[in-house]
């Protein structure tokens, strides 16, 4: 299947899920196998990219093959190859509905195909035989929805070991937490050299139907506020504060159950010191990508320095790791938290580390800031709207924290140097993320860092 190699190395860097944007490639290697040999012909490829900066990433790419060009799949065309004397046309298999059926069939059959192992969770029905529709939108991975019943997430970046998304969903199901979508199964792929544990290739979970994601709801609320120049957030239709409060309570419930069924450990002085070091190191790296950070660096480092001096008892536990409004779904009855994978750019090992739950709280507070201010990108010089944005962010922040504290007995948002540092660290991460993926939004986290670093 190495005939696909040249096609994939051309195509891959332009995909939304490709995390190596902006990094120079040093070398690339590809290997593949057939998951299906009959129509649809479906091959699965691993493309390993070595970067000039010394890093390495392996991406997973399923390709469907047709013996003639297919008009309906034009948008998914990767390229043509000659294989065993035949002209074959390769398509992004996640956008080729026929090629999406085998994933569930193999899960139901608990198959092993070449290096790939399919593990049904054995707890609920898997809707075998249905085709899957790709989830559109900005994603680090690629998901398929099967008939509003199940959703399969293909992990694009492979790393040895069980993905935290599978691990945590499984643990929270055992804890019977009601704020998650139950795990239905997962897929692993063996290490090519057999030296390291298999990587998680995909996860199937129950699809939460008739739900809206938090980003959509929150930004609708912000639009309502902007439309009413003279009214305050609590006087305008679409106020989001009650939902923010419920979201705080849902976050607290998930944290509580994670602490109950997964490991915990008290944080010692050394941990706080290392945390401050890690945050400084992340800032150093971010400055290389986003030089505008330099002017805020001293203020940000002062925020981190306060962490090294923390002496209060804090329990470290597993956390979500990348909690934001796009990762939560509002159903008729409450909030569901999704995607326990952590930040896509971090190593799997670091995403499994025990951490403070305040990291998640900070992630959500950053998201309120994004929701409030993203519309200012188009109108940066509108002081009235900037004021309203601040008001919206503060109102929802307070509501979220009071929901969290009512459910857990712990106020996450009192005057906390740790929370402030997590917010700064997240905004630094976001600067790199935006510079690489949505440069026109870079000003959102940069402006936040200007406020955080000046003590506002
Ligand atoms: N169980 C689910 N039910 C309904 N929608 C889901 C479910 N899981 C994910 N989604 C939708 O798919 C989107 C992407 O899923 P997510 O797990 O966040 O992927 P990624 O790791 O690529 O960001 C979410 O924003 C959500 O809208
Ligand atoms: O959902 P992913 O795991 O792919 O997370 C990545 O992409 C997110 C954007 O889709 C990014 O989130 C940032 O933008 C959001 C608005 O689009 C905002 O609500 C978040 O607060 C902000 O961090 C996330 O950081 C990145 O890891």
TrEMBL record:
A GO MF term: ATP binding
Coiled-coil parts of chain: none
Known pathway: Glycan biosynthesis; glycogen biosynthesis
Residue stretches making up the Maltokinase N-terminal cap domain: 11-96
GO biological process, one term: glycogen biosynthetic process
Domain of life: Bacteria
Annotated EC: 2.7.1.175
Keywords: ATP-binding, Carbohydrate metabolism, Glycogen biosynthesis, Glycogen metabolism, Kinase, Nucleotide-binding, Transferase
Pfam families noted in UniProt: Mak_N_cap
Catalytic activity: D-maltose + ATP = alpha-maltose 1-phosphate + ADP + H(+)
Broad class of enzyme this protein falls into: transferase
Subunit-structure text: Monomer.
Similarity comment text for this entry: Belongs to the aminoglycoside phosphotransferase family.
Listed name of the protein: Maltokinase
Species in which this protein is naturally found: Petropleomorpha daqingensis
Lineage, opening ranks: Bacteria, Bacillati, Actinomycetota, Actinomycetes, Geodermatophilales
């Amino acid at each position: 299947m190495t005939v696909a190699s040249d096609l994939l190395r051309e195509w891959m860097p332009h995909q939304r899920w490709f995390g190596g944007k902006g990094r120079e490639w040093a070398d690339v290697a590809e290997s593949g196998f057939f998951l299906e040999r009959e129509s649809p012909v479906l091959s699965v490829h691993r493309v390993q990219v070595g970067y000039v900066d010394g890093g390495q990433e392996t991406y997973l790419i399923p390709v469907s093959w047709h013996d003639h060009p297919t008009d309906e799949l034009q948008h998914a065309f990767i390229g043509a190859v000659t294989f065993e004397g035949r002209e074959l046309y390769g398509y992004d298999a996640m956008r080729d509905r026929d090629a999406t059926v085998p994933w569930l069939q193999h899960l139901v059959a608990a198959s092993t195909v070449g290096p790939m192992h399919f593990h049904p969770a054995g707890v609920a029905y898997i809707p075998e035989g249905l085709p899957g529709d790709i989830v559109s939108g900005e994603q680090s991975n690629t998901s398929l929805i099967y008939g509003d019943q199940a959703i399969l997430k293909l992990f694009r970046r492979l790393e040895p070991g069980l993905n935290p998304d599978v691990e945590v969903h499984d643990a929270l199901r055992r804890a019977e937490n009601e704020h998650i979508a139950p795990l239905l199964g997962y897929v692993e792929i063996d290490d090519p050299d057999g030296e390291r544990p298999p990587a998680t290739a995909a996860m199937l979970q129950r699809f939460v139907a008739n739900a809206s994601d938090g980003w959509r709801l929150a930004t609708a609320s912000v639009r309502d506020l902007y439309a009413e120049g003279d009214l305050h957030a609590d006087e305008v239709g679409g106020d989001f504060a009650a939902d923010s409060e419920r979201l705080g309570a849902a976050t607290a419930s998930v944290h509580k159950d994670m602490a109950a069924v997964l490991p915990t450990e008290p944080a010692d002085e050394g941990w706080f010191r290392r945390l401050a070091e890690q945050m400084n190191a992340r800032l150093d790296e971010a400055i290389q990508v986003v030089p505008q950070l330099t002017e805020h660096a001293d203020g940000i480092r002062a925020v981190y320095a306060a962490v090294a001096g923390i002496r209060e008892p804090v329990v470290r536990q597993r956390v979500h790791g990348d909690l934001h409004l796009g990762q939560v779904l509002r159903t008729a009855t409450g909030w569901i938290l999704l995607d326990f994978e952590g930040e896509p750019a971090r190593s799997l090992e670091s995403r499994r580390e025990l951490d403070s739950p305040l990291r998640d709280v900070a992630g959500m507070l950053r998201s309120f800031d994004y929701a409030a201010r993203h519309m200012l990108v188009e109108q940066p010089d509108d002081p009235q709207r900037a004021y309203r944005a601040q008001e919206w962010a503060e109102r929802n922040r307070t509501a979220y924290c009071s929901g969290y504290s009512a459910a857990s007995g712990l106020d996450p948002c009192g005057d906390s140097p740790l929370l402030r540092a997590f917010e700064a660290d997240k905004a630094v991460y976001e600067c790199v993320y935006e510079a690489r993926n949505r440069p026109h939004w870079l000003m959102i986290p940069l402006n936040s860092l200007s406020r955080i670093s000046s003590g506002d």
